[in-house]
From TrEMBL:
Single GO MF descriptor: ATP binding
Keywords from the named record: ATP-binding, Nucleotide-binding
InterPro entries: Kinase-like_dom_sf, Prot_kinase_dom, Ser/Thr_kinase_AS
GO terms, biological process: intracellular signal transduction; microtubule cytoskeleton organization
Classification via SMART domains: S_TKc
Domain Protein kinase: 1-158
Record protein name field: Protein kinase domain-containing protein
Pfam families per UniProt: Pkinase
Cellular component, GO annotation: cytoplasm
Lineage top rank: taxon: Eukaryota
């Protein structure tokens, strides 16, 4: 970050591989090896954030960027927040398809648990090429998330 009286400049790494969403859309599904590699990067970065008391709160395919070597990077920390175990967060935020039961039920949460839920949705999507929940109707989506009523794919992953 460079800053003077007139402006602030934020220098970031260029992710020439684009969004994981686009990458998955082109391929439909990843092999288990590739899904494992990408997920390991995202889980490791999430662990780093949690270790430093930051929860992202909007982990999704669109917020994971890839470099030219296929290394995954977490982006868009606009909804992130600092957390501690003594104080609960209660903001409904993030993308509904990736939202945890705590988020959709409006239950205060510490922080990491909502990211961990989103990681599970992300891994499912990488392996099966589809979302675990039906997002066509918000009320139905909330019911599916709170009851753990996810879509069970007929085909196993590659």
């Amino acid at each position: 970050v460079f800053e003077n009286r007139e402006k602030m400049v934020l220098v970031m790494e260029y992710a020439a591989g684009g969004e994981l969403y686009d990458y998955l859309s082109e391929r439909k599904v990843l092999s288990e090896d590739e899904a494992r590699r990408v997920f390991r990067h995202v889980a490791s970065a999430t662990y780093y954030c949690h270790k430093h008391k930051i929860c992202h709160r909007d982990l999704k395919l669109e917020n994971i960027l890839l470099d030219l070597n296929g290394n995954a990077k977490i982006a868009d920390f606009g909804l992130s927040n600092v957390f501690d175990e003594k104080h609960r967060l209660d903001t409904f935020c993030g993308s509904p398809l990736y939202a945890s039961p705590e988020i959709v039920k409006g239950i205060p949460y510490t922080g990491p648990e909502v990211d961990c839920w989103s990681l599970g949705v992300l891994l499912y999507t990488l392996v099966y090429g589809a979302m675990p929940f039906d997002g066509s109707n918000f009320k139905r989506l909330v019911k599916q998330i709170t009851q753990g009523d996810y879509y069970e794919p007929k085909k196993p992953s590659r």
